[in-house]
Design goal:
The protein has 6 helices and 3 strands. With 213 residues, the protein is mainly alpha-helical. A 3-stranded antiparallel β-sheet has the order 1-3-2, with no helix packed on it. α1 runs antiparallel to α2 and α2 runs antiparallel to α6.
């Protein structure tokens, strides 16, 4: 919004310095986006490996530190939205030390792994109360919160890992993503062209004023 305000003020007040600054910032953003696109396409394997390491670290340290839950909430949101569990499969959660339990009790998994649409039996699992969860009122907590659920071995959990779900989502939305990127790039190019055009017109105006004086 600040960038748009900068361009509007420069155009209305006919200030070449603001128009030049507006053009420079747009050019920097445009070059940065192209650079990121090239890096993502050429370093895709390293990027996937890095994301995998971050996710596995988040799973391994799940609820290990009650004061740092931002990464856990983000991953729970991904699982809830993409209807997946774990990075490769739900088995990723079975080795987490904070989720270990007796076999007779059932498996402890994040509630975001529970496939509520597969059954109407709400008694098939129950939530474990967590100390850090009491800081939020029940009605203020979202459905993809970091609750832990105890589920039986044959429970209705998402069987697909999020790595495969993310790949499917990217494949299904590839045209939309490319279209949005191209649209943003063309919009930036049009604004850069407009700012240059205004700067050149200002030069002509200044030349005419200099002749009259």
């Amino acid at each position: 919004m600040g960038l748009a305000l900068l361009g509007c003020v420069g155009a209305l007040k006919e200030l070449r310095c603001l128009l030049g600054l507006y053009f420079g910032i747009l050019l920097l953003l445009f070059v940065t986006q192209i650079t990121l696109g090239i890096l993502i396409s050429t370093q895709r394997i390293r990027l996937v490996r890095r994301v995998k390491d971050i996710v596995q670290k988040t799973i391994h340290n799940y609820h290990a530190n009650p004061e740092e839950t931002a990464a856990e909430e983000s991953w729970d949101y991904v699982q809830f939205q993409l209807r997946c569990c774990g990075w490769n499969s739900p088995q990723d959660w079975l080795g987490v030390s904070t989720l270990r339990s007796n076999v007779s009790e059932g498996y402890r998994l994040p509630c975001s792994c529970y496939n509520s649409s597969a059954t109407n039996d709400s008694a098939i699992f129950f939530k474990i109360p967590l100390p850090q969860s009491s800081r939020l009122r029940p009605q203020a907590r979202p459905e993809h919160s970091t609750d832990i659920c105890v589920v039986p071995a044959n429970s209705y959990t998402y069987r697909e890992g999020c790595a495969e779900s993310i790949q499917k989502w990217l494949h299904n939305n590839l045209i939309s993503i490319v279209g949005i990127c191209l649209g943003v790039g063309l919009l930036e190019l049009s604004f850069m062209t407009l700012s240059i055009f205004l700067c050149r017109n200002l030069d002509q105006v200044y030349d005419r004023l200099a002749r009259y004086h």
